[in-house]
Design brief:
With 76 residues, this protein is mainly α. It has helices at residues 3-12, 17-32, 37-55, 64-75. It has two domains: 3-32, no CATH class; 37-75, no CATH class.
């Protein structure tokens, strides 16, 4: 890591968890380039569709531990 990046990383680690998450999200977003408005709209519609199914009782979630266990068994 270059000196400048190392200095920034050190300073970032002094931030609160929430602040670090904001910085990380901004850095990751900067790697994606310009957002595609059609893709963003499609994702927003999909999220709303899924949320509505949950609100209507048509879909339920599963605990992460259960999903992770299932994936680990499939991978093994």
């Amino acid at each position: 890591m270059h000196d400048a990046a190392e200095k920034i990383a050190h300073q970032a680690l002094l931030l609160s968890t929430a602040e670090r998450a904001e910085v990380a999200a901004a850095l990751l977003a900067s790697l994606d380039g310009e957002p595609d408005e059609e893709v963003e709209a499609a994702w927003a519609a999909e999220i709303e569709r899924r949320a509505e199914r949950v609100r209507a009782g048509q879909a339920t979630g599963r605990p992460w531990s259960e999903v992770r266990g299932h994936l680990e068994r499939r991978r093994a």
